[in-house]
């Protein structure tokens, strides 16, 4: 048997923030058990790849990363200084959504992978340790360990799976129906995130509006999260628009720690397309919802995602969507092209849209949204905002994020200042704007 202290590891987490939380839980288990964290995959004894299988591009990226890892292991075995026991050589482990869905195919097509596992859970580490002959007696219920230490924010995952069953989405096939996490465990996760240095908690799940645990709802959960000492911002991501409640809006208006930022993935506005997606809503319903949100939470910034090229989407349907984009003037918008996912209802529909048409519609939508975003950014000039300082660029330049910007998907704030600290929220004055980013000084 090999001791954990003799083995190093490196984790590559692909896909969404929800996947990242799973990876960080494994990171905490390994580190607590005595495994040695490696600074790079080339130096690691075990390369762990947490794959994504949501859309075609994500699948392709996951396969490419796996193949690169295998190639580096093969190339490095002879040149690497092997001070490990002779019976242990570098291993490649693939896990996560792609493996959960296509384990048989991956095993047949890429036999060089040393260990396959589906969705990461508490049995993952004991399982690969048994396979590799590693003497593991660690705790599988240890605190998460950030893959990137020192970040001022932490993703707080509150449930697993999804029961919305949108016709284009494979998530329920991969991760099963929605299962809310225990209320107390989530609050514990928040305490641990604060201890690790985070002051912003980003609430995530496939649909956070579906949260329910022994009488607790999303509203009561977010209220409790905001009351944890050290929490300064709470951000709500992935709210299904058909489930948004007045209670959530009231909380956002009345609780100063809940930032005025709401992520609502509308996907489309044509009622026929939405019905084919197994979603509710329409142009009018969603426009009324946006007006209601802005009325009840003045100053809120709304992020949404839209899909173009869904089977059967006519030019008229797309024009309806474009009209909505122009009228709604949402502050943040993402767009992606429909790709058929095996075993989903939408993959069997007639009227598949050619790729060139999907690309044209995607580019047109984002071009219009870019102009809207420029107007939104220019409208911020002269305002005083709250900003979270994240990184120092040089002696007088800092990278920040305002309360209206989520990490990784939105813009940044370039701050000119002296003698300030990272991971702190400061008041800033906006002096200029560049496309999706803001520029300013301390207020």
CATH superfamily of the largest domain: tm_1862 like domain
**Globular, elongated, flat, extended or rod-shaped: what is the shape?**
globular
Q: Architecture of the largest domain in CATH?
A: Alpha-Beta Horseshoe
Count of the domains: 3
Radius of gyration: 23 Å
CATH class of the largest domain: Alpha Beta
Average per-residue pLDDT, rounded, comes to 94
By DSSP (H or I, 4+ residues per run), the number of helices equals 12
Main sheet: strands, sense, barrel = 6 strands, parallel
Percent range for helical residues?
A: 25-40%
Q: CATH topology of the largest domain, anyone?
A: pyruvate-formate lyase- activating enzyme
User: In terms of per-residue confidence, which ranges show pLDDT below 50 for 5 or more consecutive residues?
Assistant: none
Strand portion: 15-25%
The strand count comes to: 20
Terminus-to-terminus distance: 60 Å
Protein model, in words:
A hairpin with a 2-residue loop joins strand 19 (425-434) and strand 20. A 6-stranded parallel β-sheet has the order 6-9-12-13-14-15. It has a 5-stranded parallel β-sheet with strand order 2-1-3-4-5, with helices on both faces. It has 12 helices and 20 strands. Helix 11 (315-328) packs parallel to helix 12 (355-378). It has 443 residues and is an alpha/beta fold. The chain has helices at 17-33, 56-79, 97-109, 124-132, 171-175, 183-195, 218-226, 246-254, 271-276, 283-296, 315-328, 355-378, and strands at residues 8-13, 36-37, 46-51, 91-96, 115-116, 153-157, 159-160, 179-180, 200-204, 212-213, 216-217, 233-236, 258-263, 301-308, 332-337, 384-392, 397-402, 413-416, 425-434, 437-442.
């Amino acid at each position: 048997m090999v001791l954990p202290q003799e083995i190093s590891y490196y984790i590559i987490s692909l896909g969404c923030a929800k996947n990242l939380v799973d990876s960080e839980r494994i990171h905490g288990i390994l580190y607590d058990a005595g495994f040695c964290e490696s600074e790079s995959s080339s130096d690691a004894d075990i390369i762990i790849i947490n794959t994504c299988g949501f859309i075609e591009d994500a699948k392709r990226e996951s396969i490419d990363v796996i193949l690169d890892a295998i190639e580096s292991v093969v190339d490095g075995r002879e040149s690497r200084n092997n001070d490990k026991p002779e019976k242990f050589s570098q291993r490649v482990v693939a896990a996560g959504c792609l493996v959960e869905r296509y384990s048989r195919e991956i095993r047949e097509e890429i036999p060089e992978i040393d260990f396959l596992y589906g969705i990461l859970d508490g049995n993952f580490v004991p399982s690969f340790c048994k396979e590799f002959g590693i003497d593991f007696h660690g705790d599988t219920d240890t605190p998460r360990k950030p893959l990137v230490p020192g970040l001022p924010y932490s993703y707080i995952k509150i449930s697993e799976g999804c029961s919305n069953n949108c016709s284009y989405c494979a998530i329920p096939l991969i991760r099963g129906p929605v299962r809310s996490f225990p209320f107390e465990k989530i609050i514990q996760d928040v305490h641990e995130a604060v201890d690790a240095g985070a002051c912003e908690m980003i609430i995530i799940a496939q649909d956070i509006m579906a949260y329910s645990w022994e009488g607790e709802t999303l509203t009561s959960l977010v209220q409790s999260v905001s009351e944890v000492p050290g929490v300064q911002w709470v951000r709500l991501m992935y709210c299904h628009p058909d489930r948004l409640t007045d209670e959530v809006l009231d909380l956002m208006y009345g609780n100063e720690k809940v930032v005025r930022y709401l992520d609502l993935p509308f996907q489309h506005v044509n009622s026929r397309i939405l019905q084919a997606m197994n979603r509710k809503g329409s142009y009018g319903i969603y426009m009324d919802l946006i007006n209601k949100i802005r009325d009840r939470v003045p100053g809120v910034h709304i992020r949404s995602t839209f899909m173009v090229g869904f089977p059967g989407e006519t030019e008229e349907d797309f024009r309806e969507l474009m009209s909505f984009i122009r009228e709604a003037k949402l502050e943040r918008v993402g767009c992606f092209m429909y790709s058929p996912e095996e075993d989903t209802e939408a993959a069997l529909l007639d009227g598949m849209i050619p790729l060139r048409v999907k690309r044209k519609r995607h580019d047109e939508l984002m071009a219009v949204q870019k102009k809207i975003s420029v107007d939104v950014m220019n409208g911020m000039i002269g305002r005083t905002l709250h900003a979270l300082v994240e990184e120092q660029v040089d002696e007088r330049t800092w990278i920040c994020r305002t309360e209206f910007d989520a990490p990784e998907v939105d813009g940044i704030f370039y701050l000119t200042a002296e003698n300030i600290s990272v991971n702190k929220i400061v008041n800033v004055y906006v002096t200029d704007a560049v496309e999706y980013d803001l520029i300013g000084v301390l207020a």
